[in-house]
Amino acid sequence: MVSGGFGSSLVPESVLNLNLPDVVFRPLAPDIASTVDLHCVYRKDEKSPLLAALLACIQDFKRQHPIPSGYQHIP
């Protein structure tokens, strides 16, 4: 949608490597917070082993990277 002229997007720095045509990347100001909330949406009754592995990976990441002080987590 961005390259079609229909919007803008916030993306990680690694996306710069994609060399997307008609897309210009601009860094955020240095004083902007460097964390964002990520959400995972899936069907409540989903039994996929891939989903189970992804959710386990997310839980492991959360344990290894606690929310920094000064940030609020809203479940």
Primary descriptors:
extended, 75 residues, 1 helix, 21% helix, 0% strand, mainly alpha, single chain
What is the residue-averaged pLDDT? 83
**What's the β-strand tally?**
0
The helix/strand class is mainly alpha
Strand content: under 5%
Number of helical segments with 4 or more residues: 1
What shape does the CA trace take? Answer: extended
Helix percent band: 10-25%
Helices and strands, in order, run as H
Q: Provide the low-confidence segments as ranges.
A: none
Output the radius of gyration.
17 Å
Largest sheet: none
Straight-line distance between termini: 30 Å
Short synopsis of the structure:
The protein has 75 residues and is mainly α. It is 21% helix and 0% strand.
Would you mind describing this structure in some detail?
This protein is mainly alpha-helical. The protein has a domain at 13-64. The protein is built from 1 helix and no strands. The longest helix has 16 residues, at 49-64. It is extended.
